[in-house]
Amino acid sequence: MGKSTTLNLLKATAFAATLLLGGNAFAADKPVFASIVFQGDQFMQSLQKGIREEAESGGAEVLEINVDGDQAREIQAIDTYIERGVDAIIVAPLSATNSASALKRARDAGIVVIALNGGLTDSTIANATFSTANVDLGLSTGGEAAKFIAKNMGGKANVAILAFSSLLPEQSGARKDGFRENAAKGNDITFVTDQDAWVPEKAVTVATDIMTAHPEVNLFYAANEGGTVGAMQAVRNAGRAGEVFVFGIDGSEQLAKGLLAGDNVLQAVTAQAPELMGKQGVQAAFDILAGKSVTQNTTVPALLLSRGNKDGIMKFLGQ
User: Fold this and answer.
1) How far apart are CA 275 and CA 283, in angstroms?
2) CA-CA distance, 126 to 225, in Å (whole number)?
3) 225, 248 in Cβ contact below 8 A?
4) Which residue has the higher pLDDT, 215 or 132?
5) In 10 A of CB 65, how many CB atoms?
6) Which of 22, 45, 53, 133 has the highest local Cβ count within 10 Å?
């Protein structure tokens, strides 16, 4: 056996042990909930915070894992939690289709499966699903962009899109489609380029390269938090504040402060309510374990945050 193979086996063993033990000794009389997310941005951190707080307040123990966008790692986590015999898996699936088979094994093993943030294409797998319709997120930001373009840009805009199609094609596509549909209403829109960049550091580079290759671009639409942060920073770095405007998806303290900044770069984002989503998912898990019926599909409302509504931004920030 080669050195690299041995190292990989050791890593896999350590990963499985972490999932099984969770760093805690679990009381036998407490339900155990497994929380699985696919990246570490503020949205997913808030989602896990909601799961953790609601589960612990109800007397459950919580196992948490971030699979870092790795489908094989997600499947391994689910299978390990099945072996561990957890009572519920509360998951933001990495893929609406590719995550399904492992979660079906969990459901078949008698584990409650709660899907968050988009759910699964096969609606028979999850006991309950909590999500904000991705197309609605795009429609919301697109509607605000349409008004801005008509009022401030003479009804014309050259738009660059930053997306996450190679990570989550279904979600990314729906968010882009919604934006395109509403932004174009009553306006003359040219969609110049559509590229993947969902992590802030990469989004800064991609947005900077876009402005260099396409100086006519005067509006960025980013389909997630990381892309929005990166586009905003790239415009600032390029000294093009007041010339290039940014619209995005997701809400965070950084983005809210961007809307309040005097540079006039970030104009609007549509935020989800991840903490609420996590709490609702956990409550459904408790209800199912108690033999109660729950709604199979629940839509968690989105929240538009716009530069023109300072009161709404301050409320979002809790001020």
Assistant:
1) 12
2) 26
3) yes
4) 215
5) 23
6) 22
**What is the β-pairing status of strands 303-306 and 266-271?**
antiparallel
Residue from 169, 130, 146, 132 nearest 250 by CA: 132
Cα atoms in the 13 Å half-sphere on the side-chain side of 281 = 36
pLDDT for position 21: 46
302 contacts 179 by C-beta, under 8 angstroms: no
Average pLDDT over residues 127-133: 94
Residue keyed to tokens 């941005």: 41
Fold classification of 134-271 is Rossmann fold (3.40.50)
pLDDT of residue 301: 86
CB-CB contact of 89 with 107 (8 Å): no
At residue 210, φ and ψ (nearest 5 deg) are: -65, -45
Q: Please write the tens of the pLDDT for every residue from 160-199.
A: 999 999 988 988 999 999 999 999 999 999 999 999 999 9
Q: Kindly state the tokens that stand for 127.
A: 């006991």
The whole model's pTM is what? 0.73
Is the pLDDT at 14 greater than 90? The verdict is no
Report the C-alpha gap between 244 and 236 in whole angstroms: 9
Measured distance CA(283)–CA(298) in Å, rounded: 12
Q: Residues spanned by CATH 3.40.50.2300 within the chain? A: 3-131+274-299, 134-271
Q: How would residue 39 be classed by pLDDT, with cut points 50, 70 and 90?
A: confident
Helix (H, G, I), strand (E, B) or coil at 130: strand
CATH 3.40.50.300, domain 3-131+274-299, yes or no: no
**Which amino acid type is present at position 139?**
L
